[in-house]
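User: I'm designing a mutation panel for AAA+ ATPase domain-containing protein and want to avoid disrupting the core. Could you give me a predicted structure to guide residue selection? Please restate the sequence first so the numbering is unambiguous.

Assistant: Good idea. Sequence first, for numbering, then the predicted structure tokens:
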Amino acid sequence: MSDEPSVARWSFSFWRKAEATPPQESPIVENGTGSSIAVPNGNAQGAVGAAHRNGAALPNGTTEIPQRSLIPPFESAEMRTLAESLSRDIIRGSPDVTWESIKGLENAKRLLKEAVVMPIKYPKYFKGLLSPWKGILLFGPPGTGKTMLAKAVATECKTTFFNISASSIVSKWRGDSEKLVKVLFELARHHAPSTIFLDEIDAIISQRGESRSEHEASRRLKTELLIQMDGLTKTDELVFVLAATNLPWELDAAMLRRLEKRILVPLPEPEARRAMFEDLLPPLPDGADLPHDLLVERTEGYSGSDIRLVCKEAAMQPLRRLMVTLEAKQELVPEDELPKVGPIFPDDIEIALRNTRPSAHLLAHRYEKFNMEYGSHSVN
């Protein structure tokens, strides 16, 4: 082997090394005013929202955005390699989810706008004691729209969106998990304003010391995440941590303290369920009205995901009838001659309600109790 030192990362093949990926040039994205900013490949939209925050006014009234590198300067090539991996896998463009596409959840929307959207739109007012909350927790039953709310925040603010799960920051190499967490927050600061979305955060930072089988690497990862989140509150950079969980009572107490806003995302109320059925189900034949009142009454305790499954099951009934007809024919019908799927009848909706049961109503009382003890409530 050569005596010259070389920075490398071990690959999965035995006795082989994969050379560090050479830095690649970031594409330049126009912001509509003649200026540009460097962003990750395929993620042009994420930089547009931050463009106006970094430029200098020109005599002709336009704004010149200095080119921002994809990777900030790191002290070692190893950290840069980790940053390149995170940038390829995590940085996203605008999720393209609007507040209007989320039915109901008015209280959660109001709290999120107050905690994240308004500080970015009106930074003048959020200083000193009114500095924005840097950690927000969305908790509630599964299928109620926590992830969609996080994406709506990123779309509304046009921030760089880091979509993080346990697999993103957990490594089999000793010490790499803590480095990945550190690099993640460095990237978020570099691309500020940015949103770090930690989905299913209970899988990453459950209560410490609860299990004797907890590995040392897991404790180091949790400690580094707590340290990095604590550092966010001491800076003025617009980096927000948005976490979501179905099991908020399993989170570590130190993490709950850092997630200053804790917002319940409950099961949909009757008005929201009615809006979902109106949006998802097509009209009945002969101009008949859908039995909305019956649907709302029969879906008490259903999550938004459950209601979508009810509508999907109802839409499958006419398709099943058509499939029986097509399968009875001896010859295959050409695609351009296939008949249209028939309309949905009230009996189809009744069958769908019988075949689709709620999946998230059993622990509703426990979420309410946690919300009373730790949750944030809107002030009218």
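For picking mutation sites, this is relevant: The chain has a mean pLDDT of 77. The CA atoms of residues 3 and 231 lie 40 Å apart.
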